[in-house]
Amino acid sequence: MHDIINVIFLALVQGLTEFLPVSSSGHLVIAQRLLNISEPGIALEVWLHMGTLVSIIIFYRRVILDLVRGFFKLDRKCLMMVGSIFISMIPAALFYMFFHKYVDEIYESPKFTGSFLVFTGVVLIGLRWVRCSEGELTFKRAFLTGLAQAIALFPGVSRSGMTIAAARAVGISPVRSAEFSFLMVIPLIIGAAAMNLMKTPSGTEGISGWLLALGAVISAVVGYIAIKVLIRLLKDGRFWMFGIYCTAAGLLVLTLM
């Protein structure tokens, strides 16, 4: 029974916080400390991330299908998007390659998590007063957005929040910012899942297969809903309000931990 509750809770956290700009890693650290929730094993982590990957693919299925078709037809816009996604991956990949040990150590510190949550909150609130121009996606804008994704490797820094905020700041429209933010994370999720699977080629770490599948389904369903909510708030100009939550959560962590 404990395993079922643990998996359901972690799946809900993953589905909600992977896409809403509140930091999934930060909430996992907080949950471990306050609720005595154990860190997911590698197998469960892979399945939960695959669930959120499915939610992205389903939500953007038409965009992805058009992108694949256009790529093989050598359509200029599609080639530009694929190139932009590749370029956006470079900062995070290099940062993780050289500093992953340092980042892993920070995950042990709630104080750092709280500070980074406050940082995320300040950035998101700042969007309330920033008037951004709207232009096309370019390689330069993709790289700058990728830098924001690299920063989001720290616990408490929201990947979706940072990348969407960066995309808005460099002149990409709200809906296009969200689309690019979610498309650019697909290769990273697949790559991270592949690396984790190589670490545990033989198993599920004591978790039954149906529980892993349950976690993936829950994270996929919740993730899909979270994407819809985020897009609506972006269109309504209320995306910055997540900053209030992140700031409050971060200050609470710094106070209590």
Distinct helical segment count? 11
Total beta strand runs? 0
- Any idea how many domains? 1
Low-confidence stretches: none
List the helices and strands in order: HHHHHHHHHHH
Strand fraction equals under 5%
Largest β-sheet summary: none
> Helical amount among residues, as a percent range?
over 70%
What's the assembly state of these chains? single chain
Termini gap: 29 Å
- Rounded average pLDDT: 86
Overall geometry: globular
**Which structural class fits the helix and strand makeup?**
mainly alpha
Radius of gyration: 18 Å
Describe what this molecule looks like in 3D:
The chain is an all-alpha fold and 257 residues long. The protein has one domain. 77% of the residues lie in helices and 0% in strands. The protein has eleven helices and no strands. It has helices at residues 2-17, 24-34, 42-59, 61-72, 76-106, 110-126, 139-151, 159-169, 174-199, 209-235, 242-256. 42% of the residues are buried.
Short account of what is shown:
By secondary structure, the chain is mainly α.
